[in-house]
Write a structure and sequence with these properties.
The structure holds 2 protein chains of 2 kinds.
Chain A (H helix, E strand, L loop, with lengths): L14 H6 L22 E5 L3 H10 L37 H11 L9 E4 L2 E4 L13 H21 L2 E6 L3 E5 L5 E2 L15 E5 L2 H18 L6 E6 L13 H22 L3 E3 L2 H6 L17 H14 L5 H7 L19 H5 L2
Parallel strand pairs in A: 1-4, 4-8, 8-9
Antiparallel strand pairs in A: 2-3, 5-6, 5-7
Helix pairs in contact in A: 3-4, 3-5, 5-6
Chain B lengths: L3 E5 L3 H13 L7 E5 L2 H4 L3 E3 L2 E3 L15 H4 L16 E5 L7 H4 L10 H10 L19 H10 L3 E3 L14 H10 L1 H23 L6 E2 L28 H13 L4
Parallel strand pairs in B: 1-2, 1-5, 5-6, 6-7
Antiparallel strand pairs in B: 3-4
Helix pairs in contact in B: 1-9, 5-8, 7-8
The chains are: A alpha/beta, B alpha/beta.
């Protein structure tokens, strides 16, 4: 029989054996880590709402997940998320776009001052760059500025300390302040503020935009850290868009967004040895699951699906042994969020968008 | 005349002394039933119907006399356990005072807090388990009976808590906070704003039901500059406990508030 380049490939290389006949709950060879996460690795998490699952799993598995803005000791666990605590390594809320991440780093580095970021609603004031962390708003614009100042100091500490960043790409579509280019995580007028077409602009990032932004982010962070490098694990959120402002059908826009983000993650992880890609997107959207990964709204990922995703992650990055956990227990903050929902500001569009 | 139950752990003592002193001075005060048990027992109390009862058990730790809680627990001077249906008001002298920095700040940081976050912390009635056990396993705990009594009739329950630690005596947390506040105008401003808000919430809790609970703070003249500790002249038997003078001042405060 003649030889061909596919002849000796593993089962995972073929759709039939790798997907159609493979258990979607334990997909062989779908993820091979590029580097180890040690118990000492200082891990920071950020990104779209799906990143919260990874953050929680790592915490519960004993990894050293940083939390530079921990919740008050007198706040019960079920209220942490309401105020933006214990979701990520700082209280920045969901960072849906790479441009948003870049601008946060630029602000930390003193290279950018966000504009038009204090939004008002019913006499309360919100930080437009993280509007959901204070659900009832603050009493004055000055207080928003003061809280943001404190937040940026903490994020500075985070960026200087982390060894590994786990970031989940969420969206390509974004709303920006026309004059300054300040990117908002939510559209003006959804959680707070008011949409003004003279002030606010819609943008849909391209592959090239995002690659450029991410590289600039990396370079900026390294320079802030006196050239100390860091590693990154990228994921792409499998959660579809709640709504699109692109003028196309939301299914078309979702596919565009996910395709671009997945391509960016692929490009970056191929190009750089210190960037890994974890295929949570593929595990959730695997056709073998017949869309049962999602709840009835076909957006939210079922808890069972999240468990499947994280089992694949844990196979490559197993739990840290208990002894190591005990050694670090005084510096870590563990919470149990199994019963809690993931906070996704984007979902508020469903309430405010119509 | 209102029927009042004063419920608490060891912090109930200074209140009782205060009542005794004022009565001996001729002050007309209502009858108050006192029901207290040391913290080891207090955290075992539970509500059975409308009665606060203790289990039939002898705690192994912090129980030098090997007391059985069921036998140790009763209204002072009586063999009956308190029945909430018999009282118009319940004052609770246990768990940390709502001004305690350890409820809001993760040591040693001091952070700005919104009113809604302070609201949620105050109404949580919670402290992360075991966080300060290395300092004292007895002073940083919110017993389940407090939640149960609040759930039974929150509008007639007043949370007072224990006193803030005595100034210059509790050095592992309080005095470290003080150093941070002295050294930074920014932090002291942040803290002052938080304290002002906590006080406003306390005032509001006494005037309406929006908080879902009522809590009373020690008046400012009993506290040190940053309102993180109790003045040294009110030192009781250790850094966590206040003396009878503190009790007298607190009762005068309750009288000003029209509670007794």
């Amino acid at each position: 029989m003649a030889s061909n380049p596919y002849k000796n490939l593993p089962a995972s290389a073929f759709w039939k054996t790798g997907v159609a006949e493979e258990s979607p709950y334990s997909i062989q060879n779908i993820y091979k880590k590029k580097f180890d996460l040690s118990g000492d690795s200082r891990i920071a998490t950020a990104g779209s709402c799906f990143a919260q699952h990874i953050s929680r799993k790592l915490k519960s598995n004993g990894y050293n997940v940083l939390d530079v803005e921990p919740p008050p000791p007198g706040l019960t666990n079920n209220l942490h998320q309401r105020h933006g605590f214990s979701m990520y390594s700082a209280r920045y809320g969901n960072i849906y776009t790479v441009r948003q991440l870049l601008q946060l780093a630029q602000e930390v580095a003193g290279k950018r001052a966000p504009e038009d970021y204090v939004w008002e609603k019913n006499g309360k004031f919100f930080d437009a760059l993280r509007p959901a962390v204070e659900p009832e708003g603050l009493d004055s614009a000055a207080e928003v500025v003061a809280h943001r100042h404190h937040h940026i100091l903490r994020v500075t500490q985070l960026f200087k300390t982390l060894d590994v960043l786990i970031f989940t790409f969420g969206l390509t579509e974004m709303w920006v302040h026309r004059k300054s280019g300040t990117v908002y995580p939510t559209a003006p007028g959804t959680i707070a503020g008011e949409f003004d077409s003279d002030l606010h602009d819609y943008q849909n990032a391209t592959f090239a935009n995002i690659i450029e932004d991410f590289i600039e982010f990396q370079e900026l962070l390294v320079s802030m850290r006196a050239n100390r490098p860091f590693k990154t694990i990228l994921t792409v959120s499998p959660v579809p868009l709640t709504a699109t402002a692109d003028g196309k059908h939301v299914l078309v826009s979702t596919t565009y967004s996910k395709a671009v983000l997945r391509s960016v993650a692929g490009e970056l992880s191929t190009r750089y040895s210190y960037i890994d890609y974890f295929p949570s997107y593929e595990i959730v959207t695997n056709p073998r699951l017949h869309a049962t990964s999602f709840t009835e709204n076909l957006r939210s990922v079922r808890k069972e699906t999240v468990d499947i995703v994280m089992q694949h992650f844990v196979q490559e990055h197993p739990a840290i042994i208990p002894a190591s956990i005990e050694e670090r227990s005084s510096s870590l903050h563990f919470t149990n969020h199994d019963d809690e929902a993931i906070k996704c500001e984007e979902a508020l569009l469903e309430a405010f968008g119509s | 005349m209102s029927r009042i139950l004063a419920l608490g752990n060891s912090h109930l003592g200074s209140f009782k002394w205060g009542i005794d002193i004022l009565r001996s001075d001729g002050e007309s005060l209502p009858t108050i039933d006192f029901a207290g048990i040391w913290e080891t027992g207090f955290r075992h109390l539970y509500l059975k119907g409308s009665q606060i009862v203790a289990p039939d058990c002898i705690p192994a730790s912090n129980n030098p006399k090997q007391l059985n809680l069921r036998k140790a627990w009763a209204i002072a001077g009586s063999d009956k356990v308190p029945d909430l249906s018999n009282y118009d008001y319940v004052f609770i002298f246990a768990s940390p005072c709502k001004l305690a920095p350890i409820l809001y700040y993760r040591f040693p940081s001091i952070v700005p807090m919104s009113e809604s976050l302070l609201f949620d912390v105050i109404t949580s009635n919670y402290i992360e388990d075991n966080q300060y056990d290395h300092i004292s396993p007895w002073q940083f705990h919110v017993a389940k009976i407090i939640h149960q009594v609040l759930a039974f009739n929150q509008n007639n329950v007043f949370l007072i808590g224990g006193p803030l630690p005595i100034q210059n005596k509790e050095i592992e947390l309080t005095e470290q906070y003080r150093n941070n506040l002295i050294q930074s105008t920014l932090l002291s401003n942040i803290h002052s704003q938080n304290v002002a808000r906590i006080r406003r919430l306390s005032d509001s809790s006494m005037q309406n039901d929006f908080l879902g609970m009522r809590f009373i703070l020690p008046p400012e003249h009993l506290l040190c500059d940053f309102q993180i500790s109790t003045k040294e002249k009110f030192l009781g038997n250790n850094q966590w406990h206040s003396n009878s003078s503190y009790g007298v001042e607190m009762i005068r405060h309750f009288m000003c508030l029209g509670l007794i």
